[in-house]
Amino acid sequence: MTERMQQAIKEGRTSLGIELGSTRIKAVLIDDQFQTIASGSFEWENQLADGIWTYSIEAVWQGIQASYLALKETVQSTYGVPLVTIGTIGFSAMMHGYLAFDAEDHLLVPFRTWRNAITEEAEQQLTALFQYTIPQRWSIAHLYQAVLNRESHVADVAFFTTLAGYVHWQLTGEKVIGIGDASGMFPIDSRTKDFDESKLAQFDTQIAAFDQPWHVREILPQVLVAGSIAGHLTDAGALLLDPSGDLAAGIPLCPPEGDAGTGMVATNSVAPKTGNVSAGTSAFAMIVLEEPLKQVHPEIDTVTTPAGDLVAMVHTNNCTSEINAWVNLFKEFTAAAGIDYSVEDIFSLLFNEALKGDPSCGGLLSYGYYSGENITKIAEGRPLFVRSPESAFTLPNFMRLHLYSAFGAMKIGMKILEAEDVAIERIVGHGGIFKTPEVAQRLLAAVMEAPVTVMETAGEGGAWGIALLAEYLRCHADQPLDVFLDEIVFRDDAGTTLAPLPADIEGFGTFVDRYQAGLPIEQAAIDHLI
């Protein structure tokens, strides 16, 4: 295999995917058999600056360059081959948010991420205007809220985009975006595979009284579907990615995508009636629809696959952050006790304890809200753990509680899809929470009340997913994306499937009732804990 990969590297029969996630930027290089040749990563965190969740542009490029350098050094040390060319490249990142630039390409305000819950007025007005759910994190909600707030920068906006769209633009000079990522900026017309023209016109009419010097279509990126050539790496872009100058320019790039789309690709969930749950700092369930939803539901986004098919998206702003915080606390304890336990060991030990817990968590309650949560109408974050004197406060119950709580808000959204009679034949779990075998997978099956599959490639994540989209462009764009994934990439990876246990379904149902009833406690924490 080493010799085959060496040849693939030398001949450029490779694809590179880089994804900018909430806590990690990861680069993955794959060969023409979709196997990972090398990877590199960079840890980062968002900052709350002046009430806005953001990442600095300097951190964006520091992280991309560091993750690429780590990958490049791994290629050299493992295969003895310098990385000077790549077949195709793709970038993906957290969806939504707001990056706005003036005519001289200057960033007008700090990057506003998906995590911000500061556009409630825009959300309500645009959802009513379009009769189409526009959540607070969508790019158009951020733009419209800035218009409503009469922010001085709005008149100077010449272009706005997502984080993936920004990185791609800087490397290629092309102001384009993949349709999946675009569907989190502004509503998509699934027939034309482009922004919805009627809604663009509605928006322009809506803001006419504010006398802006632009029309919204003019400042949005161009929409592209998977398999389209989205530009080539420029000389300046090559140096931006690899400041050493080793990487050649001219490499084609696939359309930049959002992390929801790459999650669908990485889990073979782009065909109708398939779905996946991606769980990280945030979490989302993506269900590919056979037809549009019958009603507008504020809790449900309608986005698309990278090929442009409609998807119902249940997005929650919070998922694993509170679990990670508790694991770090246990890590501090073991270190203080002189016990040599890695973070991975602690995760495994604690997750397996969760399976020994009471199915309803012994009466415990938590909210892992590091930021606001739109589905539950909570505007700010206050991580919270609550119990009564009668609660069974044990380690297994405590760990099961936090795994349940990570999916609590998601369940509220899934109940809406159940009422819409949305058909689901397969759910695939995806993300770091599934690295410990069986635990999160089994509990998620109870949440979804359906079998959940975890594939061997689940740990590869969205960086592998965008690398697959790059490889799709390189050699396979003559066939539908779902056929490429199902019959070629995942032909031999059926994964492991767990059906929900009746006791777990009942226990989670009891927990979710407690979770919904306790939301005023979370609100009280916001009101009184400063």
Automatic annotation (TrEMBL):
GO terms for molecular function: kinase activity. The keyword Magnesium does not apply. The keyword Kinase applies. It comes from the Bacteria. Keywords: Kinase, Transferase. InterPro entries: ATPase_NBD (IPR043129), FGGY_C (IPR018485), FGGY_Carb_Kinase (IPR050406), FGGY_N (IPR018484). Pfam families: FGGY_C (PF02782), FGGY_N (PF00370). One of its GO terms (biological process) is carbohydrate metabolic process. Residues 276-471 form the Carbohydrate kinase FGGY C-terminal domain. Residues 16-238 form the Carbohydrate kinase FGGY N-terminal domain. Belongs to the FGGY kinase family. This is Carbohydrate kinase, FGGY family protein. It comes from Candidatus Enterococcus testudinis.
